[in-house]
Structures
1.
Amino acid sequence: MSRQPATAVAHPNLALIKYWGKRDEQLVLPHTGSLSLTLDVFPTTTTVTPDPELSADVFTLNGVEQTGTSAARVTAFLDLVRRLAGSTAHARVVSENSVPTGAGLASSASGFAALARAAAAAYGLPEDARTVSRLARRGSGSAARSVLGNLVIWHDGKGAEDPDAASFAEQVPGPQLGMVIAVVS
């Protein structure tokens, strides 16, 4: 069942310990767990508006309607959300990404984390951090970590009866860390 438009904000994260690739491409399960630091700069803000009048999803990034691979990734992700929500309504997705795309600063992580949180709210799915982290992971593995702030561990789900349910991110205690990011041309 679709609801009203929903907006969410997420930040990129940088891995301190990498996850070394995916052991399951469909569920986006990592070979190993990972540890990251979520930045407090370069937010992505995404609004998802389910619209039963649309015949296809419409994805706008930084004011430009997207086609090709980026639009296909968003539609594939929304297909998963719709299946989980029992909805057929396509959506209008408007995203503003302040992190430079393709600069190694996890723009897809913040993008899919914001999309997961907004889509969950717009389509009436559970919005707790663990569930949203698992959902975000299906769009971009690192997005599982961008759902949360500060130090975050992404569990690999290995050894669990249901690895999909056991692969999520959660905050871990640790010192307050800082990272300096300098964007140069």
2.
Amino acid sequence: MSHAAISQSISIVHPISLSHGKNAEVWDTTGKRYIDFVGGIGVLNLGHCHPGVVEAIREQATKLTHYAFNAVPHAPYLQLMERLSAFIPVGYPVSGMLTNSGAEAAENALKIVRGATGRTVVIAFDGAFHGRTLATLNLNGKVAPYKQKVGVLPGPVYHLPYPSADNGVTCAEALKAMDRLFSVEIDVSDVACFIIEPVQGEGGFLALDIEFAQALRRFCDANHILLIADEIQSGFGRTGQRFAFSRLGIEPDLILLGKSIAGGVPLGAVVGRKPLLDNLPKGGLGGTYSGNPIACAGALATLDAMTDAHLKTWGSQQEEAITRRYHAWRTQGVCAYLGRMTGVGAMRGIELVNADGTPASKQLTQLLELARDAGLLLMPSGKSRHIIRLLAPLTIEPAVLEEGLDILEACLRQLA
């Protein structure tokens, strides 16, 4: 199939063309089957074509395919926001708005914090990824390829080291860098918000240090700064809980949602403390497609499936299988390049490194091709593109998960 009509600035990881999928399996247009450990980059926590989601979409499509909520409200939007506000595990009243994507949720969050604080400075973190729109590019803690050749970005934005046991940056080091930032670079009274991923996605599935998260929450409270948690990839059960911030023992002021929110239909949201969401003038928030009825129907079906019991069971089963196999590979020495396992719950990464500890980016590229040829789709991550991120649907059948891990093991053994 020719890609001549598609922008060559879009990077394609796997040069195949998919035809259809079911749960954790997909088939390309030649009929070849693959086990999917990419999941649409974290969109398909409930798998491909989840029956409840498909039926909800089908039923809604016979009733109302679209209406702009800010022109005339519709029931699916109202129902979803009520359900979503109850689903967010915080102790304060939740309000929010629906968007078309996670990046759009981040853009609106920036407007919200400016309106609420009268400040413009944003603090983000090294390795962060918050989207590809112009404003979110500046939040990303990585230049190539996202910031190259796009010129001056909206700001001001500053970056701090991201503290995690998975990257070796300690809480003390991050706090020291923060102290320097406010001593040398910027007045703390100019800062509107911090934005942080409880588990970095693009950055390599790095789990945020709990001590730092709690220190950051105290710092924000003491200095009247808002805290935004980007749960676009880590949310909706990826770590075995509804959202990854719960393991940190904190409550963010705003939460960014997307990816697995609607079972594969484009949707996002920014939710949080009601006074923040209400502070802009009428018309300051909204959008033509934001909260499309079909997308809302998919999200309502997703919430039906994501009970706490289901999330705990799915997350623990996948985590157990991945960690068991990883430790076996380490014990057996199946691959000279096998480094650390990153992340928490079912949100796991596997690092490939050289003998001197440097990133084995070449070997990861080789692994992607070997696995694809063997019928397994994998996704890279990390600053040096050297960490495999495992994003199989939470609903994957145990036998299919083991089959995929078997393929991964066989491919690891072949790396040279």
